[in-house]
From TrEMBL:
<keyword id="KW-0732">Signal</keyword>
<comment type="similarity">
    <text>Belongs to the pectinacetylesterase family.</text>
</comment>
<dbReference type="InterPro" id="IPR004963">
    <property type="entry name" value="PAE/NOTUM"/>
</dbReference>
<dbReference type="GO" id="GO:0071555">
    <property type="term" value="P:cell wall organization"/>
</dbReference>
<dbReference type="Pfam" id="PF03283">
    <property type="entry name" value="PAE"/>
</dbReference>
<feature type="signal peptide">
    <location>
        <begin position="1"/>
        <end position="19"/>
    </location>
</feature>
<keyword id="KW-0961">Cell wall biogenesis/degradation</keyword>
<comment type="function">
    <text>Hydrolyzes acetyl esters in homogalacturonan regions of pectin. In type I primary cell wall, galacturonic acid residues of pectin can be acetylated at the O-2 and O-3 positions. Decreasing the degree of acetylation of pectin gels in vitro alters their physical properties.</text>
</comment>
<dbReference type="GO" id="GO:0009505">
    <property type="term" value="C:plant-type cell wall"/>
</dbReference>
<protein>
    <recommendedName>
        <fullName>Pectin acetylesterase</fullName>
        <ecNumber>3.1.1.-</ecNumber>
    </recommendedName>
</protein>
<keyword id="KW-0378">Hydrolase</keyword>
<keyword id="KW-0964">Secreted</keyword>
<dbReference type="GO" id="GO:0052793">
    <property type="term" value="F:pectin acetylesterase activity"/>
</dbReference>
<keyword id="KW-0134">Cell wall</keyword>
Length: 413
């Protein structure tokens, strides 16, 4: 029943995206993420903890503002007991805007303006305050930093003609300064996390986060569904590279990309995680579906690359994919595994790559930690991340190819 509800709900969200895209003639890569539709799934379970929004007062004086110039914000639930000096800082995801038109539209939503942000949001999955839902981090200080810049907290520029402020890097710095004053500076253990565009932001800011603390603090980073590939789409083009190129150029993200990458690659390439992860010094864990649902839908087989709709049925349900399409998807998986090969060889890295057709698995309760959560090596995602963070065991889990995994929570079947 839950899978059926997820199919219906996901289809509804995709139709909303298409409707908005057509109405505003937006890029097909304008995305709503997991948190947009998971909240719509009915549940008989007790309601999750609701945490209020706090705006960062004075952030505007530092140039740290959302696309429309409003104050950025965050949601904080304080830790208790053994977790009182431990922190999770979670960076919200929500796609990107790559040109003036998409950014102007975005500033009329919660993705570009705090005027439209919910005044309170549910904390589930890795942010849950219940031990039975979040065994290793439930009593930590848990923060979600809201995302309102459209460049994975990475840009620093403006467009006066369109009244757009691209201040993701300044928002990141203002949020960290605010949280340090709230007790983050005293953390004994700290984890930076995020899913999708927030997962990419986690990779981009991982070493910056690590540099905030003394060497005595245990600091790590956890990226969920943030490993976006510079992959060829079904028409032979590079849809995501074109999108990322627009983001980097418009918002001047190159100012905040690592020199170690820019010394030998162009700025757009340095926005792709595959070219960043080998340079990161702070321990990093990658959680990703080998057949990432968002990348399949919007990067590999978007409507622009599939005008006749040959991939439509396959995208909605992988059991409808023909042998040629499955072969294409297996090549995508192989590219992902090849891209993480060097990274996975390091002692401090962590991996959980399951053969699922989904996107974001750490903030949804059903995929993070539940009786029927996805398994690899008989271990649920929450336990795998905890085992890695606390050095209980090495975690380098890579699933066998589709269709071997029967524990997936797919958005498409």
């Amino acid at each position: 029943m839950m899978k059926l509800i997820l199919i219906i709900t996901f289809s509804f969200v995709i139709s909303v995206i298409r409707s908005e895209t057509q109405k505003e003639t937006l890029s097909p890569l304008y995305m709503l993420e997991n948190d947009d539709f998971s909240a719509k799934v009915p549940s008989s379970k007790p309601q999750p903890l609701m945490v209020p929004l706090t705006l960062i007062q004075g952030a505007d004086s530092k140039g740290a503002v959302c696309l429309d110039g409003t104050l950025p914000g965050y949601h904080l639930h304080p830790g208790s007991g053994s977790g009182v000096n431990n922190w999770i800082v979670n960076l919200e995801g929500g796609g990107w805007c790559n040109n003036i038109r998409t950014c102007v539209f975005r500033k009329t939503t919660r993705r570009g303006s705090s005027k439209y942000m919910d005044k309170q949001i549910p904390f589930t999955g890795i942010l849950s305050n219940k031990a039975e839902e979040n065994p290793d981090f439930f009593n930590w200080n848990r923060v979600k930093v809201r995302y309102c810049d459209g460049a994975s907290f990475g840009g620093d520029s403006e467009n006066k003609a369109a009244n757009l402020q691209f201040r993701g890097q300044k928002i990141w710095l203002a949020a960290m300064e605010e949280l340090m004053s709230k007790g983050l500076k005293n953390a004994k253990q700290a984890l930076l996390s995020g899913c999708s565009a927030g997962g990419l932001a986690t990779i981009l800011h991982c070493d910056e986060f690590g540099s905030l603390f003394p060497k005595s603090t245990k600091v790590k980073c956890f990226s969920d569904a943030g490993f976006f590939l510079d992959a060829t789409d079904v028409s032979g083009g590079r849809t995501l590279r074109k999108m990322f190129g627009g983001v980097v150029s418009l918002q001047e993200v190159q100012k905040n990309l690592p020199e170690s990458c820019l010394n030998h690659l162009d700025p757009t390439s340095c926005f792709f995680p595959e070219n960043l992860i080998d340079h990161i010094q702070t321990p990093l864990f990658l959680l990703n579906a080998a057949y990432d649902g968002w990348q399949l839908y919007e990067s590999l087989a978007p409507s622009t690359a599939d005008p006749h709709g040959y991939w439509k049925a396959c995208k909605l349900n992988q059991t409808n994919c023909n042998s040629t399409q499955i072969e294409f998807l297996q090549k995508f998986r192989n590219q992902m595994l090849n891209d993480v090969k060097g990274f996975s060889a390091t002692s401090q890295s962590g991996l959980f790559i399951n053969s699922c057709f989904t996107h974001c698995q750490s903030e949804r309760q059903d995929t993070w930690f539940a009786d029927d959560s996805p398994l690899l090596n008989n271990t649920r995602i929450a336990k795998a991340v905890g085992n890695w963070f606390f050095d209980r065991q090495v975690v380098k889990e890579i699933d066998c190819p589709y269709p071997c995994d029967k524990t997936c929570h797919s958005l498409f079947s």
